[in-house]
Amino acid sequence: MRLFDLHCDTLSEATDTGAALAENSLAIDLRRGRRYENWTQTFAAFLPDGLSVTDARRRCATLLDTAEDWRRACTEYRPVLTAADLRDETAICRALLSIENGGVLAADYTGLAALHCRGVRMVGMTWNGDNTWGCGCFGSDEGLTAAGEQAVRDLEALSIVVDVSHLNTCGFYQLEKLAKSPFVATHSNAAAVCPHPRNLTDEQFGIIRDRGGLVGLNLYGEHLGGWDFAAVQRHLEHFLSMDGERTVCFGTDLDGMTIPPTWNGIAIMQGLWQYLRDRGYPDTLLDAVFYENARAFFARVLENT
């Protein structure tokens, strides 16, 4: 099977623990990734709420340094910078870099261009709280700030994908009116199935779908309404019922949560594939959800990068 995962926090965990990408006790490593025929993994540089701008920029640089160390140390790790990189089948792991909670950086166009030069191809506007760009789903009721609106324009001008996971409802609708390009929710589930503030309403999912974006299902039991494959299936089936067969994919959020030990990190996706296959989902649909939807989206976005 093929796998494209839109979100994990392994980059942060590895930086803090010194774990090697080749093999580790975290949720994601190259050893387990080898089981997939093609594997593209988005590694998020997670920046927590409350950091000063100086500390946030220092932390971000440190995380991106770790990714660069991986590139130098692992011949099986290939950064995804252009659409052509998605076609490189010599690597075990094709790696896309993102930033989670970009607003704590208070970056202008020049700062965002520098991040693009360092390989960043996707940026989440907020985490759970408020920052210089806007408000997260557990923050205040305000939406995007003027700086956040400008950041959306700057990100689009640089062909950096905007991620709305964690953004609050007001900010989502501001961004929807402002954005010219498709945007994504890398790790958000269905509020109709589990009414958690981090999950998307049907209207929000429909907007992302109609704009040609992506919604990645995460594996966090609190957002799913249970720690089992049946819970994942309920969210998947709901989005598929909304004509989401070309929109829904996965953003596991591994290493951003504690998972059952039996799941064995990224290896769990193989088991989830088989579970869904055994329940009648055709291979063509599973390949779209587990891989092709995300691959096709980024191939379009990165074509002129």
Overall mean pLDDT score? 97
Radius of gyration: 18 Å
Structural domain tally: 1
Strand content: 5-15%
Q: What is the number of E strands?
A: 9
Principal-axes shape call = globular
Second-tier CATH architecture: Alpha-Beta Barrel
Write down the CATH class.
Alpha Beta
Q: Can you walk me through this structure?
A:
The chain has 305 residues and is of the alpha/beta class. It has a single domain (2-301), classed as Metal-dependent hydrolases (TIM Barrel). It contains 11 helices and 9 strands. The protein has helices at residues 10-17, 30-33, 53-73, 109-117, 146-157, 169-178, 202-210, 221-224, 229-241, 268-278, 283-301, and strands at residues 2-5, 38-46, 77-79, 93-100, 120-124, 161-163, 184-185, 214-217, 248-250. The chain is globular and about 50 Å long. The mean pLDDT is 97.
Ordered list of secondary-structure elements with their pairings:
Elements: E1 2-5, H1 10-17, H2 30-33, E2 38-46, H3 53-73, E3 77-79, E4 93-100, H4 109-117, E5 120-124, H5 146-157, E6 161-163, H6 169-178, E7 184-185, H7 202-210, E8 214-217, H8 221-224, H9 229-241, E9 248-250, H10 268-278, H11 283-301
Parallel strand pairs: 1-2, 2-4, 3-4, 4-5, 5-6, 7-8, 8-9
Can I get a quick summary?
The protein is an alpha/beta fold. It has one domain (2-301): Alpha-Beta Barrel (TIM Barrel). It has eleven helices and nine strands.
Features:
single chain; 305 residues; alpha/beta; TIM Barrel; 13% strand; globular
